[in-house]
Q: What sequence folds into this?
């Protein structure tokens, strides 16, 4: 069985998930980090544990009562803690965009001092406008059937939030929306507490030095949220990086750096730190290929890519027969390629197109992964790296 065989990649995913949650600071995160290190060494790579400071978050309690009805909820990571129960008017804010909040205000609905309800599946997108507009709290509704809760983070800018926030399930969220759409004035009482403190995290780096002056970064984040094993997000990307490190270790001449980033779910801490340490040597990076969240039985494949690599990606996708369901040019600002793209580094991001919304939930498990899709993404990534490698000598 070759390293890039989908079944072999699925076996790595299963092993990673056996460690439990990979929330930063957990035993599962530590075991995964050491596992990646061992796999890089077994592939013959020179290895490094690269430390970085980050704001850790330990969830403690969360509670939400709406019109006397108690709801199940989880705290939003890095949101602020309530010192006592917070009671305020409840307002539905849609996606919680700047435009929607402005329209609420212009329509006479007060955003300031309210608790906002949002159906935005990305809490880190909804939270900053809610905070900036003076909301007292935020409730994020999970857009899935049943009452499964999707965890999330308040921000991706390495800052702690200033208002409390919780995530709730779809059934509770739909009931709340029905009450609000009926025109009733409803108050909610919210509690959310978590411990935020400075901590030390690690990136796992494996290097294969060739004769090329420039290198290609092959990356994935290995951390996850606390509420499950998270096979798709992102044991899948971690497993493919491990498999590629084995398959490409003997690739002649091209310099490759395989990096498993920590702290992505809390705000891209590992990738941002890596970039800061490499700031004076960015010209050494030809491009990065970032793998994050794909390969489930419901997922479709998206390529997010900087404009300079679009033609290459199109040619490679056609050559390997990859089915690409959507393109984003440049990549969406939602994973570890973003700090690099902002500094002008060419990048490709292989990711779920958004079709499988079970990420950040306990439903993201190894039995929902598709070995054929995993092998297809790995083959696409391998060929992209090989074709990019030719550019190292141009």
A:
């Amino acid at each position: 069985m070759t390293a890039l065989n989908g079944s072999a990649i699925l076996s790595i995913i299963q092993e990673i998930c056996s460690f439990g949650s990979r929330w930063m600071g957990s035993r599962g995160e530590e075991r995964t980090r050491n596992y990646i290190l061992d796999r890089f060494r077994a592939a013959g790579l020179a290895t490094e544990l690269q430390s970085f400071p980050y704001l850790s978050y330990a969830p403690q309690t969360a509670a939400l009562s709406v019109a006397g009805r108690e709801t199940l909820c989880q705290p939003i990571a890095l949101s602020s803690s309530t010192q006592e129960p917070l009671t305020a008017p409840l307002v539905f804010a849609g996606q919680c965009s700047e435009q929607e909040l402005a329209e609420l205000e212009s329509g006479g609905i007060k955003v300031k001092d309210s608790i906002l309800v949002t159906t935005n599946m990305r809490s880190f997108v909804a939270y900053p406008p809610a905070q900036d507009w003076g909301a007292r709290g935020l409730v994020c509704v999970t857009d899935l059937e049943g009452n499964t809760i999707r965890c999330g983070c308040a921000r991706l800018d390495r800052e702690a939030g200033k208002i409390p926030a919780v995530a709730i399930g779809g059934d509770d969220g739909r009931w709340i929306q029905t009450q609000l759409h009926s025109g009733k004035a409803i108050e909610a009482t919210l509690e959310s507490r978590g411990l935020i403190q400075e901590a030390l995290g690690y990136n796992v780096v494996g290097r294969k030095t060739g004769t090329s002056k420039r290198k290609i970064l092959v990356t994935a984040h290995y951390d996850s949220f606390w509420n499950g094993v998270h096979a798709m997000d992102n044991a899948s990307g971690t497993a493919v990086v491990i498999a590629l490190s084995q398959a490409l270790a003997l690739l002649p001449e091209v310099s490759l750096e395989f990096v498993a980033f920590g702290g992505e779910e809390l705000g891209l801490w590992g990738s941002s730190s890596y970039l800061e340490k490499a700031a004076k040597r960015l010209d050494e990076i030809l491009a990065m290929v970032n793998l994050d969240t794909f390969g489930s039985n419901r997922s479709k494949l998206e390529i997010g890519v900087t404009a300079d690599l679009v033609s290459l990606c199109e040619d490679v996708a056609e050559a390997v027969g990859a089915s690409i369901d959507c393109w984003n040019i440049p990549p969406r600002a939602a994973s570890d390629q973003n700090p690099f793209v902002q500094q002008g580094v060419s990048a490709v991001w292989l990711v779920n197109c958004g079709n499988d919304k079970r990420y950040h939930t306990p439903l993201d498990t190894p039995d929902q992964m598709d070995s054929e899709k995993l092998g297809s993404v790995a083959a696409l990534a391998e060929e992209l790296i090989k074709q990019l490698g030719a550019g190292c000598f141009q």
Notes: The chain has a mean pLDDT of 96. The radius of gyration is 21 Å. The domain at 6-56+198-393 is CATH 3.40.630.10 (Aminopeptidase).
